[in-house]
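JOB MANIFEST
job_type = single_chain_structure
chain_count = 1
residues = 113
[input]
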Amino acid sequence: MNKDWIKVFVAAFFEVFWVIGLKHADDFWTWAGTVIAIIISFYVMIMAGRKLPVGTVYAVFVGLGTAGTVFSEILFFGEPFKVEKVLFILLLLAGVIGLKLVTNDKNQDGADS
């Protein structure tokens, strides 16, 4: 895995924080943290999209962010565990992994991406 794919995973990690922040922020500091997580998340995703296919980057970003948010809500915020929900998240992750596997890792620059 090259550094550009690692950027996608880092961006998805920060996406989980800002999505949770949008739901749970209630004072200046939690809103400030949410805004910082949004900025970092999108900046890193855009940097990865400069070298990798944008559609695949966005699909992986959103898929990992969705899965991370759902699992975080279950683990940390008391969201009820439902087998159906977990199965659909696993299906989503299988699609994300499939996209990663079939995407050419060769870096592309500019309009050729």
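[summary]
The chain has one domain: 3-104.
Residues 62 and 109 are 23 Å apart (CA to CA).
exit_status = 0
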